[in-house]
């Protein structure tokens, strides 16, 4: 079995080294680059499977690098990391095609779970075409969550199937409580799978939780079986959906 | 030049003087002109009247004169037809003739009465019978009679003839001239000839044969019968102040032979002479002459006309004169009356003028005074003029004007005051805005800084966090190392969350607003806090306006604001106190006012302005971000926050939030 190659791109050598150490594993071959230019040279010379890139770098920045890779090497997955996280840059990165987006500082475990999810998704995609497709008329963050607007400014929130297929068997689910406020781009729920990884779920919209799907707590598998219907997470009162929409995509 | 000076002086004189001068000039000019013309007219009238009268008097005098002449003529004519006389002449009976004629002469006061024969030789001379036989045929009157016609005329008689007649006629006729200033010069100083009224008539017999001529005469020299009769008839002997009003005179040539004009010594002025002008006009040119004349020693209104002889030669002058004095006095009296009336009129006019000018000038003076008062600033000054003419209207307008001026002035003052107030208010607002702007700028720059710090700090934090976790994974049992590593990861996480907070603050995420009940929000927030240790000795009092409308706010952010303010209040009262939270509606009903008052130690004045500055803190363990964040949140809600404090008594934070904001 081939070792997966991962390229870490960060202008800070210590950050590069630390990330390297965090994901060092018999299964991965890790390389480093200290700038976007160096990364591009290395990839051209020897393509890799995954790029973990910092968003803000002098010269060719993370977003530029991401765009370039998505054009010339669409098979390479990219995870964006940043010391200055905003919902805007996060959504932008995901839209362009980043697999995920992590805010600095993070723990080794956080990074490893995302990397694992990334390679798992690759494997799944290779095995068989997706059974489930996104129904039309819902707003979503690529690879994360969706919201379906209902009457009276209410919205139903769930997790998109692209995210779920990268997750193992769900062993635990942590949902928000009624009357909790949720913010777009902020974590609203947590999933734990049989591999022991914890995944944070970003809320697709801002609002107040009105109702949670109690059925899910009884049967976690509902989430994977019917991500757009019975597997919904919670219903909330949307505060400013018009603004939220700008960071969302609409399914067709 | 001089006239211009007077005119300028006039223009610069006061109004009253102008009025007076103008009126005086007009009145004086008019008065003098009227007086002059009036007296002239009166003079003319009086004197023309007088002249007419004197002319008439002269005519009367002539009548008297002619009457006397005709008397003489009639006497001779009547006697000539006496039969006895005719017979006596026919028969040459001298004695008889004399007997017949002499009484006639005496009776009729004739100076001579003679009879001639048919050849014209004197046959009987009644006044001097001794002398006869001389011829009188040269005499024009006798000649006329010889030719059969009766004739009567004035005639000059030579001394020779007078001597013949005897009876002292020559002496009577002799007149010495008396020097008269204005008379024409004369060679002789006396006159021997006489002026006589003479008449001659033929005497015939029954057969109408001429027998002779009867002739008679009256010598006028020193004969006052005619002149006195004229005076008697014409002037009726009237006197004026002891003088005769009327006088009459008969001149022989240019000297007086019969007159009632008296000389200085009271005698009849026989021998005095007529003036040169009269001499020229009457004697030489034969004209009548009527004018005022100085006769002997008085002015007279005089009339002269020539006396002619049978041939038409001028031999003398007939004169009448009226004393001028009465007329002059009359004229003067009239003039005096006239002048008196005129003066009275002027006086009355001046009094009226004075009254009229006063009615004009006094109000004007009042107006001038009022104008000066107003100029000095006394706008309440009124002009008190109760006239209904133009000046009255002017006064009314003036009062109206000052009223308007006063109102305008008051408005101006009022405006000035409100302006001051407005300026004060604006300045205050401006200062508030400026303060808020400074605060915003501080926040903005802090935000930028925080973003930079976060980015820079997050990188090393990443390395620390990752490596400490990696070490933890490797350390199995060593509790010492494990504890240290745990502390490192914990503190790194805390750093991370601080940075996250900073980022949160710097990003100033737009608030997610929804209508909320402020009162409930306060109750919920304080409920959590009141259970804390810090609030043990603090009495929380809530003074809510229960009718507050819902306010559109980001509840989590406002909750944070309330939390911050209440924590601060509690920290200001470490030994306990009172916390009062009140809500109310603003005056215009568009805002909600939240007041959080503590009874703590208070904030010194110099710190009040720095309260909302980021990193400003008086607490040992404060970040200095609490009130800065609070300020930012309130600003995002288009609200305001301020602190009022008194050291030792406490502090009040006032938060004002608009009910509906963007």
Compose a concise summary of this entry.
The complex is a heterodimer of chains A (252) and B (662). Chain A has 252 residues and is an alpha/beta fold.
Number of strands of chain A: 15
Largest interface: A-B, 28 and 27 residues
Considering DSSP H and I runs of 4 or more, what fraction of the residues of chain A is helical?
A: 25-40%
**H/E order of the elements of chain A?**
EHEHEHEHEHEEEHEEEEEHHEHE
Overall pLDDT metric of chain A: 84
For the report, how would you describe the main beta sheet of chain B?
5 strands, antiparallel
Shape designation of chain B: rod-shaped
Q: Give the DSSP E fraction of chain A (strand runs of 2 or more residues).
A: 25-35%
The radius of gyration over CA of chain A amounts to 18 Å
Low-confidence stretches of chain B: none
**Class per helix and strand makeup of chain A:** alpha/beta
Assembly state: heterodimer
Bulk shape of chain A: globular
Number of helices of chain B: 16
Indicate the mean pLDDT of chain B: 85
Number of helices of chain A: 9
For the biggest β-sheet of chain A, the strand order reads: 10-13-14-8-7-6-15
Share in β-strands of chain B: 15-25%
- The largest sheet of chain B has its strands arranged as 2-1-7-6-3
Number of strands of chain B: 21
In whole angstroms, the N-to-C terminal distance of chain A is 39 Å
Characterization of this structure:
The complex is a heterodimer of chains A (252) and B (662). Chain A is α/β, with parallel strands linked by helices and 252 residues long. Helices cover 32% and strands 29% of the residues of chain A. Chain A contains nine helices and 15 strands. In chain A, the strands form three sheets. In chain A, strands 10-13-14-8-7-6-15 form a seven-stranded antiparallel β-sheet. In chain A, strands 2-1-3-4-5 form a five-stranded parallel β-sheet, with helices on both faces. A three-stranded antiparallel β-sheet of chain A has the order 9-11-12. Chain A starts with a strand and ends with a strand. The model of chain A has no long low-confidence stretch (mean pLDDT 84). Chain B is an alpha+beta fold. Chain B has 16 helices and 21 strands. Chain B has helices at 2-12, 15-80, 83-90, 94-107, 140-146, 159-165, 169-173, 225-235, 276-284, 325-376, 390-474, 479-507, 518-530, 555-572, 605-608, 626-636, and strands at 112-116, 122-125, 151-157, 175-176, 190-191, 194-204, 210-219, 239-240, 243-244, 246-252, 255-259, 289-295, 298-308, 314-323, 514-516, 538-543, 551-553, 577-585, 591-598, 640-646, 650-658. In chain B, the strands form six sheets. In chain B, strands 2-1-7-6-3 form a five-stranded antiparallel β-sheet, sandwiched between helices. In chain B, a hairpin with a 5-residue loop joins strand 6 (194-204) and strand 7 (210-219). Chain B is rod-shaped and about 235 Å long. The mean pLDDT of chain B is 85. Chain A binds chain B through residues 10, 12, 14-15, 17-19, 21-22, 56, 81, 83-86, 103-109, 111, 181, 206, 239-240, 243, and chain B through 451, 454-467, 469-470, 473, 492, 496, 503, 507, 510, 512-514, 556.
């Amino acid at each position: 079995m081939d070792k997966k190659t991962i390229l870490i791109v960060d202008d800070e050598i210590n950050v590069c080294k630390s990330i390297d150490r965090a994901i060092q594993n018999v299964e991965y071959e890790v390389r480093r680059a200290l700038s976007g230019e160096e990364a591009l040279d290395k990839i051209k010379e020897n393509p890799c499977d995954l790029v973990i890139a910092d968003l803000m770098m002098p010269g060719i920045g993370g977003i530029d690098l991401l765009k370039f890779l998505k054009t010339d090497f669409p098979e390479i997955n990219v995870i964006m990391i940043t010391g200055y996280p905003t919902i805007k840059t996060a959504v932008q990165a995901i839209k362009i095609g980043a697999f995920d987006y992590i805010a600095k500082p993070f723990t080794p475990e956080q990074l490893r779970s995302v990397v694992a999810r990334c390679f798992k998704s690759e494997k799944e995609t290779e095995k068989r075409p997706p059974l489930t497709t996104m129904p039309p008329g819902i707003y979503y963050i690529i690879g994360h969550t969706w919201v379906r607007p209902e009457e009276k400014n209410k919205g139903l929130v769930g997790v998109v199937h692209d995210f779920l297929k990268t997750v193992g068997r769900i062993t635990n689910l942590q949902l928000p409580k009624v009357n909790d406020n949720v913010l777009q781009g902020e974590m609203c729920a947590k999933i734990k799978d049989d591999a022991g990884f914890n995944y944070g779920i970003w809320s697709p919209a801002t609002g107040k939780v009105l109702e949670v799907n109690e059925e899910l707590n009884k049967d976690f598998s509902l989430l994977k079986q019917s991500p757009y219907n019975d597997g919904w997470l919670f219903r909330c009162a949307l505060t400013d959906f018009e603004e939220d929409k700008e960071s969302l995509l609409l399914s067709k | 030049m001089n006239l211009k000076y007077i005119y300028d002086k006039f223009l610069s004189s006061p109004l009253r003087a102008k009025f007076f001068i103008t009126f005086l000039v007009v009145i004086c000019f008019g008065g003098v002109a009227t007086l002059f013309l009036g007296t002239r007219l009166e003079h003319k009238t009086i004197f023309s009247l007088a002249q007419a009268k004197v002319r008439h008097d002269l005519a009367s005098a002539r009548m008297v004169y002619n009457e006397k002449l005709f008397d003489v003529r009639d006497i001779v004519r009547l006697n000539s037809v006496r039969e006895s006389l005719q017979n006596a002449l026919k028969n040459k009976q001298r004695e008889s003739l004399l007997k017949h004629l002499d009484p006639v002469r005496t009776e009729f006061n004739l100076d001579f009465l003679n009879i001639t024969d048919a050849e014209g030789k004197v046959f009987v001379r009644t006044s001097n019978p001794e002398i006869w036989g001389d011829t009188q045929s040269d005499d024009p009157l006798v000649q006329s009679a010889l030719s059969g016609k009766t004739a009567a005329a004035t005639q000059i008689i030579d001394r020779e003839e007078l001597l013949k007649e005897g009876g002292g006629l020559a002496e009577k006729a002799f007149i010495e001239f008396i020097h008269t200033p204005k008379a024409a010069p004369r060679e002789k100083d006396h006159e021997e000839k006489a002026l006589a009224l003479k008449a001659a008539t033929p005497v015939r017999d029954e057969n109408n044969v001429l027998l002779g001529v009867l002739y008679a005469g009256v010598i006028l020299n020193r004969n006052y019968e005619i002149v006195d009769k004229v005076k008697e008839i014409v002037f009726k002997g009237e006197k004026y102040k002891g003088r005769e009003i009327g006088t009459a005179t008969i001149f022989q040539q240019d000297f007086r032979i019969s007159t009632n004009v008296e000389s200085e010594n009271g005698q009849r002025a026989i021998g005095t002479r007529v003036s040169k002008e009269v001499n020229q006009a009457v004697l030489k040119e034969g004209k009548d002459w009527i004018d005022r004349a100085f006769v002997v020693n008085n002015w007279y209104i005089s009339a002269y006309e020539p006396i002619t002889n049978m041939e038409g030669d001028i031999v003398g002058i007939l004169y009448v004169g009226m004393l001028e004095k009465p007329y002059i006095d009359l004229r003067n009296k009239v003039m005096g009356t006239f002048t008196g009336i005129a003066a009275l009129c002027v006086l009355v006019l001046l009094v009226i003028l004075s009254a009229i000018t006063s009615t004009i000038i006094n109000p004007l003076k009042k107006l001038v005074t009022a104008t000066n008062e107003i100029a000095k600033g006394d706008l309440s000054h009124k002009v008190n003029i109760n006239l209904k003419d133009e000046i009255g209207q002017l006064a009314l307008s003036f009062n109206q004007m000052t009223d308007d001026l006063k109102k305008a002035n008051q408005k101006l003052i009022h405006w000035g005051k409100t302006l001051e107030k407005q300026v004060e208010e604006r300045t205050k607002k401006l200062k508030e805005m400026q303060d808020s702007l400074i605060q915003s700028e501080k926040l903005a720059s802090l935000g930028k800084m925080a973003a930079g710090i976060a980015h820079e700090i997050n990188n090393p934090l990443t390395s620390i966090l990752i490596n400490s976790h990696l070490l933890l994974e490797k350390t199995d049992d060593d509790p010492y190392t494990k504890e240290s590593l745990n502390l490192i990861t914990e503190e790194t996480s805390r750093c991370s969350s601080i940075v996250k907070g900073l980022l949160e603050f710097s990003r100033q995420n737009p608030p997610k607003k929804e209508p909320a009940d402020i009162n409930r929000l306060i109750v919920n927030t304080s409920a959590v806090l009141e259970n804390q240790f810090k609030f043990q000795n603090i009495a929380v009092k809530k003074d809510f306006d229960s009718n507050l409308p819902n306010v559109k706010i980001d509840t989590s952010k406002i909750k944070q604001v309330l939390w911050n303010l209440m924590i601060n209040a509690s920290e200001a009262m470490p030994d306990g106190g009172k916390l009062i939270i009140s809500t109310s509606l603003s005056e215009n009903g568009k805002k909600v006012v939240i007041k959080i008052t503590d009874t703590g130690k208070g904030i010194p004045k110099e710190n009040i302005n720095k309260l909302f500055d980021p990193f400003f803190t008086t607490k040992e363990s404060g970040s200095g971000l609490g009130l800065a964040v609070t300020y930012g949140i309130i600003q995002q809600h288009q609200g305001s926050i301020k602190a009022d404090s008194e050291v030792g008594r406490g502090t009040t934070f006032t938060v004002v939030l608009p009910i509906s904001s963007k």
